[in-house]
Amino acid sequence: MTIFVTSKSLFLWALIASILFNGAALLSRQEDRRPEFKRFEAEKKLMGVRFRLVVYGEDLQMVRPAIIQAFQRIAEIEARMTDYDSNSELMRLCRQATANVPVKVSQDLFRVLSIAQKVSRFSEGAFDPTVGHLSQIWRKARQEKRLPSKSVVESAVDLTGWQKMKLDSQCRTVVFLQKGLRLDLGGIAKGYAADEALRELRLRGFPSCLVDAAGDVTVGDAPPGKDGWKIAISNLQSGKSLTVQNASVATSGDRFQFLKQDGKVYSHIIDPRTGYGTTHRNQVTAFSTEKKNPGAYADAYASAFSVMGPELIQSRLNFSRQNKVRIESQAGFFLPPTGPDSTELSNPDTSQPETRQSEDFFGSPQ
């Protein structure tokens, strides 16, 4: 068979070859120009703990302003919600509120109180944002290393109860149904602050980020080239770690803060229904995938689970499933074996090199 090749067909083949070659070269150049993301870390003490931020970005000049803004957001939330400052919004609300008179509050405070009430309802009062008087009593007890009197505890319990606080979402107001209530958001505020810090980083173009609030970890998108952030939970029977993204993992327990009296150990975690620190040794990890505030929900659920114990937790979960009640964000929980061993949250993404900085320095690994 004879094949005739004309000058026109040669031209077309040459043109096609040129397009294919140049296209491949262009794609190669684009691959070479793909941004190289580096890992940056920064730490700062806020809300009484060390907050650690991990951010993946191209260079320090781009990442630094976002991290500064994230820390500023945490500081703003601390100023609103701390019960250690009499001028915070939280303490002004407690001081100025009159029974049955609505008080308008900020969006931040209203959001946190709304989440707190949902968890209080689910836990049947095991988590309670009105536990402020009891918190004050037990802080003093741990400092003085002696139990508070029964009458003091009973008086504080009379001023406790999440049902005694009503929220109006349309007017964004809080109503105390009893005068003298005192709020304490220690079991939820740090998780909310982590949510907001993560949001600030996302808004500034850094979706692959992590916020570690003293071991309670809230993460965004996975690090470049990975399936997620690896978070190991030790002393579990399964011995497995979690690989997560866009989620939060929080741990609560009595490992570090407690009062020992007459051979009995009272945790810093207070059962609002009895007024006393829990006496069953435990450490619980809660996992949340709620879209807007996974950190706040995980923080609050971990606190609630520490008080509830495994039987009540399972009972409430079964009730919710049978009655088709949606539990906000409660995607899972882990209870360690009974005994002195604790469930401990390790540093996430441990395969990456760690670089520790002071609170005012931002850098990347060597």
Quick take:
The protein is α+β, with helices and mostly antiparallel strands and 366 residues long. It contains eight helices and 15 strands.
Please characterize this protein's 3D structure.
- The protein is of the alpha+beta class and 366 residues long.
- It has a single domain, classed as ApbE-like domains (T-fold, Roll).
- The protein contains 8 helices and 15 strands.
- It has helices at residues 7-32, 60-81, 89-96, 107-122, 132-144, 150-158, 189-203, 294-322, and strands at 38-46, 49-57, 103-104, 165-168, 173-176, 209-213, 216-219, 229-234, 241-244, 247-253, 258-261, 264-267, 283-288, 330-334, 344-345.
- The strands form 4 sheets. The chain has a 7-stranded antiparallel sheet. Strands 3-5-4 form a 3-stranded antiparallel sheet, covered by helices on one side. A 3-stranded antiparallel sheet has the order 9-8-15, with no helix packed on it.
- Mean pLDDT is 79; it is low at 1-5 and 323-366.
